[in-house]
């Protein structure tokens, strides 16, 4: 183990993990500590490491040979591939201890835990010896003041037993700070591994746009669980912030009564495209499509088309193609004319009309096309985005390759990741 005296948990979060020969293993997502009945510092049992396949596994601290400012090194490049499962006597330092409310044993002052430091004891075990806390010097709520950061021994702070952490509302400030630089799919993976109560607290603290992005990356069961936890008015706001096709997929899993109630609470401009998507089966082009592709009229220029696809809110797949249609340009549009891939647009003079660059020979998908037909279509034409039209050739939306893959992969793929691609060369005993 590298000669370090103290390591704060926040410093470890998201550090890359390497094997002894420099091979990449994954990233640190949390620390696992075993809580005690007395006031002695809990022992750090190991790390939760997220592999490249997004599977989270447990790595015992005995396997860690070096902790450096920019990386963690293990004694061996092989890890136990069993998915990490938290045990009853364990606490996730980042997921449960951060933002926990506690009490100073000496004065009874209320404090909030903002970080935890592990140190190596004489037994060579790592323990959570120190806590970084902020004292609450005013009433809870708006206008609450906090003191400067203090680092105290674990024994000086009470109210951090397993029952305390399970029962109390923690808030989510520190976790949201960690999530700030993470992709929505990584935040979703972290949320899945948090206890239900903690997951709900984080959802309550997230702003609507961020929560909508994260919700789109969660499995259906977790989506419904969080949506049912939210007040109906906020649930409707979150659905409005989601992509219409993702919102429709989520609503289709609810009872008709819940579905209709939430649709009624949504703004009509946001609910109408979702209602149209709900008319189609989920395994058809109409059910897979998004009703918000990039649509331009024939008199638009190439420069205008390129400006539209620079929109940072567009996914790479949606930004790969623009669709030329007669007015109106909102779906369902006027008659569909053709489509232009962004690579083609880059080759055209900016002042030329986009209609001149449009591919009018590529046949569009019909809204009733089956998933099998859609898959063959993408494979045959090497596309990442495709137009969907009705019987009168009005553009209804566009199907993207990520939506096709989402429906082709086995149910529950978001929970299991791609761990079957590779297997560990050795298997370790379960953590104690």
From TrEMBL:
<dbReference type="GO" id="GO:0016020">
    <property type="term" value="C:membrane"/>
</dbReference>
<dbReference type="Pfam" id="PF03448">
    <property type="entry name" value="MgtE_N"/>
</dbReference>
<dbReference type="InterPro" id="IPR058838">
    <property type="entry name" value="SH3_actinomycetes"/>
</dbReference>
<dbReference type="Pfam" id="PF26205">
    <property type="entry name" value="SH3_actinomycetes"/>
</dbReference>
<dbReference type="Pfam" id="PF05239">
    <property type="entry name" value="PRC"/>
</dbReference>
<keyword id="KW-0129">CBS domain</keyword>
<dbReference type="InterPro" id="IPR006669">
    <property type="entry name" value="MgtE_transporter"/>
</dbReference>
<feature type="domain" description="CBS">
    <location>
        <begin position="358"/>
        <end position="416"/>
    </location>
</feature>
<dbReference type="InterPro" id="IPR046342">
    <property type="entry name" value="CBS_dom_sf"/>
</dbReference>
<dbReference type="GO" id="GO:0015095">
    <property type="term" value="F:magnesium ion transmembrane transporter activity"/>
</dbReference>
<dbReference type="InterPro" id="IPR000644">
    <property type="entry name" value="CBS_dom"/>
</dbReference>
<dbReference type="Pfam" id="PF00571">
    <property type="entry name" value="CBS"/>
</dbReference>
<dbReference type="InterPro" id="IPR027275">
    <property type="entry name" value="PRC-brl_dom"/>
</dbReference>
<protein>
    <submittedName>
        <fullName>Magnesium transporter</fullName>
    </submittedName>
</protein>
<dbReference type="InterPro" id="IPR011033">
    <property type="entry name" value="PRC_barrel-like_sf"/>
</dbReference>
<dbReference type="InterPro" id="IPR038076">
    <property type="entry name" value="MgtE_N_sf"/>
</dbReference>
<dbReference type="InterPro" id="IPR006668">
    <property type="entry name" value="Mg_transptr_MgtE_intracell_dom"/>
</dbReference>
């Amino acid at each position: 183990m590298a000669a370090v005296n103290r390591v704060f948990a926040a410093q470890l979060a998201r550090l890359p993990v390497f094997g002894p020969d420099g091979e990449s293993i994954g990233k640190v997502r949390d620390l696992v500590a075993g809580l005690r009945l007395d006031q002695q510092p809990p022992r750090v049992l190991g790390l939760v490491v997220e592999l490249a396949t997004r599977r989270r596994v447990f790595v015992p601290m005995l396997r860690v040979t070096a902790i450096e400012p920019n990386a963690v090194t293990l004694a061996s490049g092989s890890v136990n591939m069993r998915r990490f499962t938290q045990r009853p006597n364990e606490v996730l330092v980042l997921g449960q201890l951060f933002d926990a409310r506690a009490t100073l044993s000496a004065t009874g002052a209320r404090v909030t835990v903002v970080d935890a430091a592990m140190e190596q004891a004489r037994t060579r075990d790592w323990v959570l010896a120190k806590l970084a806390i902020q004292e609450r010097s005013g009433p809870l709520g708006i206008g609450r003041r906090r003191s400067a950061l203090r680092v105290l021994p674990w024994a000086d702070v009470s109210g951090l037993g397993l029952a305390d952490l399970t029962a109390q509302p923690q808030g989510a400030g520190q976790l949201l700070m960690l999530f700030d630089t993470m992709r929505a799919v990584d935040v979703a993976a972290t949320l899945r591994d948090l206890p239900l109560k903690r997951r709900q607290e984080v959802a309550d603290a997230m702003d609507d746009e961020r929560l909508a992005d994260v919700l789109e990356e969660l499995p259906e069961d977790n989506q419904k669980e969080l949506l049912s936890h939210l007040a109906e008015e906020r649930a409707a706001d979150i659905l409005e912030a989601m992509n219409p096709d993702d919102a429709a997929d989520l609503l289709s899993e609810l009872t008709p009564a819940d579905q209709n109630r939430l649709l009624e609470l949504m703004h009509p401009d946001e609910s109408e495209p979702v209602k149209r998507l709900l008319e189609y089966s989920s395994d058809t082009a109409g059910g897979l499509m998004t009703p918000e592709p990039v649509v331009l009229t024939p008199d638009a220029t190439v420069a205008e088309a390129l400006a539209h696809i620079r929109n940072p809110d567009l996914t790479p797949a949606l930004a790969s193609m623009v669709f030329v249609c007669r007015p109106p340009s909102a779906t369902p549009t006027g008659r569909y004319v053709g489509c232009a891939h962004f690579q083609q647009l880059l080759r055209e003079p900016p002042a030329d009309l986009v209609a001149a660059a449009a591919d009018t020979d590529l046949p569009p998908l019909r809204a009733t096309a089956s998933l099998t037909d859609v898959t063959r279509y993408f494979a045959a034409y090497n596309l990442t985005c495709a137009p969907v039209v009705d019987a009168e050739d009005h553009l209804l939306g566009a199907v993207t390759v990520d939506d096709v893959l989402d429906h082709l992969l086995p149910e529950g793929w978001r929970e299991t990741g791609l761990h079957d691609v590779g297997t560990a060369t050795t298997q370790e005993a379960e953590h104690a």
